Amino acid sequence: MRRGPRTTAATLARWSGYGLAALPLAFAPVSVRLRVPRRWLRSPVRLERPGPLRVLAHSVLSGGSGLVGWFLALLALVALTRGLAYPVLTGDDHANSWGGPTLAGAWAVHAVLGVALLPVWLLAIAGLGAVQWRLAQRLLGRTGPPWAIPLSIALAAAGALLFIAWTRQL
């Protein structure tokens, strides 16, 4: 099979979708948590009779990962909206803005950045989806890599710190 831009974009979209699905999947029954990666990613998770503690750990860690994914999606939407609607959302002082001193230059720079960074945001959310899939393999299937658990904890903590920093600068 030939891999091209379309296949890569579709794969990125699937993994990003799975990264965003981590939050609702955290509260779903185990059968649904196993069905979604099989259908969306075409990568099944083999169930190895997880105990209640493993299911609870998966719920907490995938919920944290899902919250980080949705926060990144919010930041992407804010960046895109602010970039495209720059003249509506800012004042008259364009001399000190990126692309200034003219409104057209500032608008162009902000719009290009808002659109150009979308693939970066999607890659970050897809990366969270990949970690989420490996976490499900580890906790529900006992076949995943051992680093998935500490990495999920670190990503949730980093996401919480990023959220706190973002809310304080508003």
From TrEMBL:
Keywords carried by this UniProt record: Membrane, Transmembrane, Transmembrane helix
Spans through the membrane: 15-34, 55-80, 107-135, 147-166
Tagged with keyword Transmembrane: yes
Entry protein name: Uncharacterized protein
Lineage start: Bacteria, Bacillati, Actinomycetota, Actinomycetes, Mycobacteriales
